[in-house]
Design a protein that fits this description.
The protein is built from 13 helices and 12 strands. With about 325 residues, the protein is α/β, with parallel strands linked by helices.
Length: about 325
């Protein structure tokens, strides 16, 4: 064999292990995403888009080294369970869950695959993690607020823009531990604000409509809407009912106010999905959920819809407008 040919052959042989390793390094990893929204919901699409965009920045390109399977079971636990089984058959490397309702189903069914949750209230009280600093088992992620005292802040803001309110319907999903803690905290704050708190327990759209309509039968009422897949997927109904029944209402996320709600105070879910991408990246590179602490929002947004305020006959204090992060004219 000629010397040049021998060197070429030897060089090619030496490169085979490198090529094999490169091919193995570029194997496609699968990410399953379960959203507590309807697929047509623009808020859900924005959050998933943020996850995809941030993963691209971190070097994960769909079609090359990852595949993202997104499903939208909304606020139906049975549908969540069925779709989760479908995703599990695809053998995902990591799951991303959204909302307490979805995460509760995932927690009950998934024991070995890492799970990154988003938009979850009270992850410790809900049993998803043993503690925030070092989660147990296979779950960690991004929670709503680190204190049930948030419900007291919601009551204060509602009373500030609608001082005539003396009764507040507290819309909650009664089986969600975070909502129980929020309600107890609100009960402690209510007397100082001269507010009577009324639990509005809801499980579906019919209960939402029936509960709000009955509550509006007495004067000087307002509404506090807690965060849950049920309230997210029915937000247009809730906002429309509040307007028709002339109930000042405060909501946990900005897209409620942008849909016509009076005021909102809470975090930006898009930011949580960006941060979740960082945890997905770290897990795909070998980190364990127990090494990734549960994180809480560091920035909250206050949004007011002046058009809705005017329709309700409310004069919003200038000091309130100056504090708002966004004023919808």
């Amino acid at each position: 064999m000629k010397r040049r040919a021998f060197i070429t052959l030897l060089g090619g042989a030496a490169s085979w292990p490198l090529a094999a390793r490169a091919q193995q390094a570029e194997r496609v990893r699968r990410i399953g995403v379960l959203m507590g929204y309807a697929e047509i919901d623009p808020a859900a699409q924005a959050q998933v888009a943020a996850l995809r965009q941030e993963l691209r920045k971190l070097g994960w390109e769909e079609g090359r080294n990852i595949r993202i399977d997104v499903r939208f079971p909304a606020a139906n636990a049975d549908r969540v369970r069925a779709i989760l089984m479908e995703l599990m058959s695809l053998r995902p490397d990591v799951l991303v869950s959204n909302s307490n309702l979805v995460t509760a189903v995932v927690h009950a069914e998934v024991r070995t695959i890492p799970v990154i949750f988003t938009f979850v209230g009270d992850p410790v009280g809900s049993g998803f993690v043993s503690n925030d600093a070092r989660p147990n088992d296979n779950l960690t992620g991004f929670a709503n607020w680190d204190s049930p005292a948030m419900s007291g802040k919601w009551l204060e803001l509602l009373k500030e823009v609608a001082p005539h309110v003396q009764r507040v319907g507290f819309m909650r999903h009664p089986e969600t531990p975070a909502h129980i803690r929020f309600f107890k905290s609100a009960e402690a704050f209510a007397p100082a604000l001269k507010i009577k708190l009324v639990a509005l327990d809801v499980h579906d759209a019919e209960e939402i409509e029936r509960g709000l309509t009955a509550f509006a039968g007495e004067h000087n009422g307002g509404v506090l809407v807690t965060p849950h897949a049920l309230t997210l997927t029915n937000r247009d109904l809730i906002v429309a009912l509040a307007a028709r029944l002339r109930l000042p209402a405060i909501y946990p996320l900005a897209f409620f106010a942008k849909a016509g709600g009076l005021i909102s105070y809470g975090f930006d879910p898009v930011i949580q999905f960006q941060e979740a991408a960082g945890y997905v990246d770290r897990i795909l590179r070998g980190a364990k959920p127990a090494d990734l602490p549960v994180q809480y929002p560091t920035k909250l947004q206050l949004v007011i819809n002046l058009k809705t305020a005017k329709a309700l006959g409310l004069a919003i204090p200038e000091s309130f407008l100056l504090r708002a992060d966004e004023v919808i004219e």
